[in-house]
Amino acid sequence: MGRVVVDVMPKPEILDPQGKAVAGSLPRLGFGQFVGVRQGKRFELEVEGDVTQEHLDAAREAGVQVLSNPVIEDVVAVYADTAAVQA
């Protein structure tokens, strides 16, 4: 069994209140080296057999049409998860 990962992030011009909250917390928790945070979404799509280019293309299309809100989000990455456990 293969796995395709689709990463979705808010567009750069969209405010990210969750990211701002995390960014404000990090220095208080000893992680002062980070100056900004953006929070996104990760989708894991399982496929039968090995991941093919056709799977990746379909996952990107699903990301654009279904998994993201194209008004405020971008699909930033679509890739095969090579660390996925093969069943």
From TrEMBL:
Keywords: ATP-binding, Cytoplasm, Ligase, Nucleotide-binding, Purine biosynthesis. InterPro entries: PurS, PurS-like_sf. Pathway: Purine metabolism; IMP biosynthesis via de novo pathway; 5-amino-1-(5-phospho-D-ribosyl)imidazole from N(2)-formyl-N(1)-(5-phospho-D-ribosyl)glycinamide: step 1/2. Transmembrane segments: none annotated. It holds the Pfam family PurS. It is found in: Cytoplasm. It catalyses: N(2)-formyl-N(1)-(5-phospho-beta-D-ribosyl)glycinamide + L-glutamine + ATP + H2O = 2-formamido-N(1)-(5-O-phospho-beta-D-ribosyl)acetamidine + L-glutamate + ADP + phosphate + H(+). Its EC number is 6.3.5.3. Signal peptide: none annotated. The keyword Lipoprotein does not apply. Belongs to the PurS family. Part of the phosphoribosylformylglycinamidine synthase complex involved in the purines biosynthetic pathway. Catalyzes the ATP-dependent conversion of formylglycinamide ribonucleotide (FGAR) and glutamine to yield formylglycinamidine ribonucleotide (FGAM) and glutamate. The FGAM synthase complex is composed of three subunits. PurQ produces an ammonia molecule by converting glutamine to glutamate. PurL transfers the ammonia molecule to FGAR to form FGAM in an ATP-dependent manner. Part of the FGAM synthase complex composed of 1 PurL, 1 PurQ and 2 PurS subunits. This is Phosphoribosylformylglycinamidine synthase subunit PurS. It comes from Cellulomonas alba.
